[in-house]
Amino acid sequence: MADLSEKEFRQLIRKHIDKVNFVKVVLKDDSSIFGFIVKSSNEFLMIEETYDFSLAGTKIVPYKNIKSIRHNKFDKVSKMIFSEEGLIKFNQKVIDKTSLKDFESLFRSIKKQNFHCIIESREKKIGYFSIGEILDINEKSVIIQNYDTTGKILKKPDKISFKNIKLINFNDNYSKTFRKYLK
């Protein structure tokens, strides 16, 4: 958000939350998240991601990874459809119980709610993302009991440094369903 001051950026986010605007959040790697911003803090943006006119899970994005936020005529039509179809049904309990204070409290709150999570990172030792149960959290990193696409739990968990985290996903159909079939 190079063209906005920090204050203007936060006001823009507040406006999108208050008006329940459908937005496109563009990340610095040029990937995008479509959905509704439901919560923010000094460090993070919490987005209810959408896919094919359904809510598809919760994404947490560190501010440092956000390039821009779009709300244009296309997004206004999407919001109108979501609204007319009665599809804007956020899980307020999950939103309220998820801490956005810092990484440590964020992961503790996700773990306490018993969600597995998907973490996209820039760690060189592990793959592009880790998926699984949160095993441990400290002031600098999180340990995830990663599993592969066959449902096999890997022997060595992934330790991910907070400074390398690009995106956190939880409360999504993929991880909620897949965890039932782990070996």
Keywords:
single chain, 183 residues, alpha+beta, ten-stranded antiparallel sheet, 5 helices
> Which of globular, elongated, flat, extended, rod-shaped describes the shape?
globular
The secondary structure category is: alpha+beta
Strand content: 35-45%
Q: Find the count of extended strands (DSSP E, 2+ residues).
A: 10
Spans of 5+ residues with little confidence (pLDDT < 50)? none
Number of helices: 5
Q: Which sequence of SSEs, written as H and E, runs from N to C?
A: HEEEEEHHHEEEEEH
Distance between the termini: 43 Å
Radius of gyration: 16 Å
- Most strands sheet: 10 strands, antiparallel
Mean pLDDT: 93
Strands of the widest sheet, in order across it, are: 5-1-2-3-4-10-6-7-8-9
Estimated helix fraction = 25-40%
Protein described:
It is a single chain. The protein is of the alpha+beta class. Helices cover 26% and strands 37% of the residues. The chain has five helices and ten strands. Strands 5-1-2-3-4-10-6-7-8-9 form a ten-stranded antiparallel sheet. It is globular and about 50 Å long. The termini are far apart. The mean pLDDT is 93.
Provide a compact summary of the structure.
The protein is α+β, with helices and mostly antiparallel strands and 183 residues long. It has helices at residues 6-18, 73-84, 92-97, 103-112, 173-178; strands spanning 22-27, 32-40, 44-51, 54-62, 66-70, 117-121, 129-137, 141-146, 158-161, 165-170.
What's the helix and strand layout?
Blueprint: H1 6-18, E1 22-27, E2 32-40, E3 44-51, E4 54-62, E5 66-70, H2 73-84, H3 92-97, H4 103-112, E6 117-121, E7 129-137, E8 141-146, E9 158-161, E10 165-170, H5 173-178
